[in-house]
Structure formats: structure tokens, C-alpha cells
Amino acid sequence: MGVLLIIFLAMGLFIAMLSPAIQKRFRWIFPLMPLAALVYILTAQTPVGSWSQGGLLPDFASFYVDGLARFFGVLIAGIGFLIFLYVSAYMKGKTYSTRLYLLLSIFMVSMLGLVTSDHMIGMFVFWEMTSISSFFLIAFETHQKEAVESAKRALLITGSGGLILLAGLLILAETSGTYYFSELILQNSEILKNDWLGLVILLILLGAMTKSAQFPFHFWLPGAMKAPTPVSAYLHSATMVKAGVYLLLRVSPVLANHHWWMPLLTSVGGITMIYGGIQSVFRNDLKSILAYSTIAALGAMFFFIGMGSHPAALWVTVVFILVHACYKAALFMIAGTLDITCGTRNIQKLSGMGSYMPGVFIAALMAVAVNLGLPPTFGFIAKDLMYEFLLDHRALLGLSIFIAAKILMMVAGLKAGIQPFIGVKPDEIALKKEVKPLHWLPALLLGLIGLLMGILPGIASQSFLSGIDQSLLIEVSQVPKLKLWHGFNIVFWLSIGSILLGLMVFFGIKRLGDIESIYLTLEKWSPEVVLTRTLSYIEDGCVTVSHRLQSGKLREYVLIVVLFLSGLLVYKVYSGFWALPDWRGLSDMSIYEVFTVFILLGSVFFTLFSTSRLVAIASLGIMGLCICLIFVFYSAPDLAMTQFTIDTLTVILFVLVLYRLPRFIPINFQIHHIRDIMVSLLFGALMGVLSFAVLSYEPNREVSAFYADNSYVLAKGKNIVNVILVDFRGADTIVEIIVLSIAAIGVFSLLKLHIQKSEKME
Amino acid sequence: MNTIILKEASKVLLPLLLLFSIFILLRGHYLPGGGFVGGLLASIAFILHAFSNGLANTRKLLRIHPGFLMPFGLVISIISGVAPMLVGKPFMTGLWYSEKIDLIGSVGTALFFDIGVYFVVIGATLTIVFSIAESS
Which pTM does this prediction carry? Predict the structure, then answer.
């Protein structure tokens, strides 16, 4: 599995590097990738087993394709294939379509990695990769500022959620002793003794909530609708937002029986369901409607997973995921087609298009039928399962909330799928572009699958859903059978009743016309506004602090650093640290050393008090040379040579930089002079104490002895310093030369690249 | 700084100093020296030339932008570190030829690593100094 993913990535990147003319010829390769993945997943026997590819890839890249992974894999690859086909029609005539394919492929690879990963950290890596590729996809139209803003916001929310998720996963792994999901599930019964489980659930839930757009972290999703429609159809309805749901399902065998699981998840899911449903009904933009109804559907999934202590709930959730994928992606594609061909997405303006694009209309009808749960579609089976589960467990409050949310979702589906096609066509709408078959065939295919699985539910349970019971540890007897007809029982009447209610509400709202404005006044209390305001306060605060601390004057920065260090050392002295030179242990002083020290002191004097910059620089150089001589006296020739050359270069650099400046002018106040003198004296004295302390400290000679003994034997060199640099500690040297290069590039770019106003990117 | 004496002297000093820097580089394993000092000496040589003949002439002499020496050196160093992996040993194991060469001594991956460091130091130093010199 891992190898397959790497191959896809490599192919995609390779094609993207070719010239645009060649790219056009090879674009057809891209839809083959999800097709290949789909074929691979469908034909592999479950479970494929835990591979880390025999040590070729690191430990955390181990994949385990069990029933759950297969299910999601089929969703990702199958819908991916249809979306890729759709892209070829959607992007006709637009530039950069190869880039869209490439980014979508990267996303697909990350998503496949996420659902098949067995190692928790590996899954986290793929989780973040989906966030990052989603960022690039949302900001695809880079010149549109709102798109870039939405992308940043989405990344901020999902990224923070990712960090919280990482914390939760780490706690879970460390306390349960394994990083592998497959091993974690085996611990199912002992896990409840783990005290940290509540915190783990909370953290993982927060991570899942941000990714799956639950209230109050939901608002990045409607903003993400600025992405091109294939992206919205793929990421933000069928796959990426389901990542949170996948994660919860994956850990549910272990965590679902904890007493925090149900209240947290059902309340989050319930609130989100209703919130998303209400919002979707009020919106005018097709994609907004679909976005909010996706939020509502995700809320419903969380709601049902919340009841996961009854394993049948998890099964019901999975069925619902399958249904939702069928109709939501289709509806999005249809919305995109309407956008491309008619130029608008506003349902107040779109109506009566049914006769002009019959293919699209039929596809929409099928998608809406699955959404509503009309028999004999698969949607009907799913809806029945959900009602039946809630009735069986006497969850009447839950049932009523769910029915309300479901009706709202139906209305949203009708608004997005039916309203643009019925009625009379207004004059200002005209077909700007021709409707190509690939605009609606993928959506129609999804709808047909929905219908087919309804008539023959065996297809679903044999192929898509097989093996899930093992992944989720559901007893085979508790798995409800997927049947179309259960008889005229309560569930049936509830089902029909909710459909009728949905239709009534829809026609009622349609008559009301444009109600979005009512809603927008409430906008200022939305979580979105709260977040943006908090962020701007934080930003203002940061700016103020920066202005205080970063005054732009070098001497103030040095003062702050020196004062801080002195403060630390004073604290140390205060707590008893003191050292004086040990006069008896001094070695003999030769006359050369005395002279050198005097020259050193003299040059310090000249640096401080001369008014000519050149004299100051030259004195600085002499200071360095004196230190170099001291190194020579104490047998450190390598150090001396390096110091000598660096000193020369420093003087040259100083001259180059400072030569053009005028003579020193005293512009400091007297008080500043006094302050500087006091701080310098204090710091110098503390440094002296520190040096004396170092001298009296018994060093551990073990390492030096090792190097002295082994440098010729092991590294064939007699110069120990050099041998350490390039052999024993060679890895450090590599990092050092990288840092050197970065510094040089930094200086170069700061000085050479003057970006003029006209060259700036808008 | 365009005195004739310095100009003529630098014409002689530049090759001498470059030779000296290579000498320091190659002797690093046995006596004080090594890649860092050698690189610094070579850059000082070029800077001396730049001071006496003008920066434009030195750039013409170099022919390539000094910035290109940095990735060149980095690649040499990293390849010398990766080379042991091709024979199954861990990263940065020292591999040595069994015979010593006259004047240089043992040849091995550590020597090439040092040569890489040499080029990086020249590249970085010259980039910095030239950029600052040209911007003022």
C-alpha cells in the first residue's frame, strides 16, 4: 500500500514538472490513478496485513487495510475517480488544470494514507498532509483574496485541531503501550482501566471536531467553498471532512464504552445537526447550502457514533456515510455544472433549467431521491436503519432531534437539487457554456449506484461493507440486515412522514423567497466573528509588545541581553556561587604574555575612546590578534589560525560597512554613559567570577582521552581537532556548513533583492 | 586602494595564497589546518585581489558567482557521508584507501568531506563580503 502511494505521488510530480504542452497530452493519466487505487482496494483480500514494507519505509509508515480502511478507501478512490473525470470537463479552457490534478492527487494519496495507516503517528502525518493539501486547493485561485483568507482560516482551525489530536494520540499510545491501531483493538477490555481515557477522548474529539466541521469549529467549511467546485465536492463533502468520523470509528472499539463518550459525542453531534440544518435552509448560494447540509450530516454521524456503546450504532453510521457520499458529491458536481454553464450559483436567480439541461436534471433528481430517502434507493434503507435504531433503544429525544435535522437536510437537498430546475427560467440567465456529458455523467453514476444498492442491498454488504464488523468489533448477530422492505411498521410511516414534511417545508420556504437577510443579522454572534475578533486583538497585542522590545537600536538589544545574563549570574552568586583565582596554582608567566596582555588592554582603550572609526576598527583587529597570540602560547594552533583569519575578515567587513559613515558624534546623554559603564563593569566582573570558577572545576577527561587514543587508530589522523571535526563529529559539521550557507544566502538576499513596488505580487 | 604596488603584489600573492590554502586543507588531518582555515585563507586571497584590482575584476576572475560554491561543497560533503551507505555501512562511516599517497597521506571520505567544507566556506565568505562590498 505504501509503495503504491509513493508511486502515485512520484508520477504526479513528474508530470507536473514537464512543460505545459506535454502536460496536456498526459492529463488523462491522472484519472487513472484513483481507478488503479480503487481496483487494488477492491481486489485485495481483507485484511491485507500490517506491512512496513520490510524496513524500506520507517516504522510509522505501516499500513493495515482492514474492512474499515477498505470501506473508506473505496469511497476515496471511487469518488476520486469520478471527480477526476469531472475535472476534465469543469476545467476546460481554464489554465492550471494540471496543477489542480496534481494537488488533488496529493490529497488523494494523503487521504488514502490516513485511512489505511496502522501507526498512530503515521496517521497523524497523513492527517496534517490532508490539511496542507486542502490549504493549497482552497487557495487555488491565488489572485482571489477571499479564497486565500478562507484557506488560511481553514488551515488555522484544522491545524490547531491536529495538534490537540496529536496530544490525545500520544497519551493514548503511551498509556496503552502501543502505537499501532491493530494492537490497540486487541486490548479492548483492559483499556477501560486506563485513567487517562477521558482526557484522551476529549482531545481526540476536539481534533475530530475541527476536521469534521462540528460546531463551534464549523465555520471554515462554508469559507472553503471558495475553492473550485471539484475540490469542494471531493474534499469538503465526501472525504476530508470524513476524516474525523473515520478516526472516531477507528478508536470506537476501544473508547466507546467509556462514560464520557456518549454525552460528549451526542451533544456535539446533535447541536451541529440542528445548527447546520437551519443554516442550510436560509442560504442562497448553492454551495453554501450544500456546505451547511454537509455540516449537518457530519453532525448526524457524530451523533450516531456517540451511541457507539451499542455496536449497531456504528454500523448504522457507516451505512449513512456510504449514502451521504453518494448524494452529496453528486449534488456538488451539479452545483458546479450550474455555476460553469449559467454563471451564477444563487438559487434566487436559478430556476427552470430543467428543460435546458436534461442530463443534469436527471442526475439531480436521482441524487435528491437518495437524499430524501425515497424508496427504493439506498437512502431509504439508511434512513430506515437510523430510525429503527433510535426507536429500538427508546431514544425518543434523540429521534425527534434527528428527524428534525433530517427534514432540514432534505429541504437543503431539494433546494440545491430541484429548485434550480423547476419553474420558469428568468430572462437574465442564459447558458454561457455548453453542457458536456462529463459534467453530469459522474453525478448520474453516483445516483445510479445509490438506486442500485437500494434495489439490491446485497451489493453493498458484500463489497463495500464487508469486514467492517471485524474492524469495529461488532458481533455479527448485531449487524442489522440491509433490507429494502420491512413491512408497514412505525419506521416505515415515520420515513414516509418525514419525506412528506420535508417536501411541505421546502415548498413553503420556496414561496418565502429570499430569507437569507433575516439570518445575516444574527451573524455577529457567530463563532466565526468571535474568532476573528479574538485573533485581531491578539495581533494588536503582539504588535505593541514588539514595538516596545524591538526599538531598532542595536545598543538596546545588546543592553537587554547583557542585563538578562547578568541578572541570571547575580542570582547564582546570591545563592552561594563564588570563585576567586587560586594564586598558588598559577603557572609561570613569560614576558611575552605580559606584553601581549598590555597590547590587548591598549587596544581596548583605543577602541573605546578614539573618535575615528578606522582607528576603532583597527584596534578591534589588534584585540583579535592578541587573543590569537594567547592561543598560540597555550598550544592551540588550529584555533589560532582560525582566529587569525576570521579576525582579518572581520576587520575587512567592518571597514566595508562602516567606512562611509562620519566620525563618531557623541549623541548619548551622560546618564546613558553611566548606565552603560555600570552594566559593563557588572557583566565583566560576573564573567570574571565565572572564568575563575571554570578554572577550579575538575574536568572530566574521559572524552579527551578517548579521542587522543583513538584518533589515529580509528580515523587515521594525527590532528585530533580536525579528526573530531570531520570524522567523529562529522554530522555536527554538516549542520554547521548548512547554517553557514543559510547565513550567506540571508545576507545576499537582504542586500541584493530590492523588490520594487511594481514587482510585488498582488 | 588602487596602488600599483598592491596591484602587482596581489597578482603574485593570489596564486600563492591559493596554493597555501590548498596546502593547509590537505595537511589538516596530520598537522594544524583543515577545511575551515583553508577556506578562509582562500577567501582572504580573493578579497585581497578585490581590494587591489576592484571587485568587478575579481568577479571576472572567478567567472562563477561565489554563491554556487556553497551547494557544490555541500553536495561533496553529503555524498562523502552517504557513500558508506552504498556499501552497507551507516551514514558517515570513514572509508579509506589502503595505500597512502605521497604528499597527501591517507585518502578517504573524511578528506572529501573536508574538501566540501572548504568550498562551502569559500562560497559563504565570498558571498557575504561581495554582497556587502557591492551594496555600499
Answer: 0.69
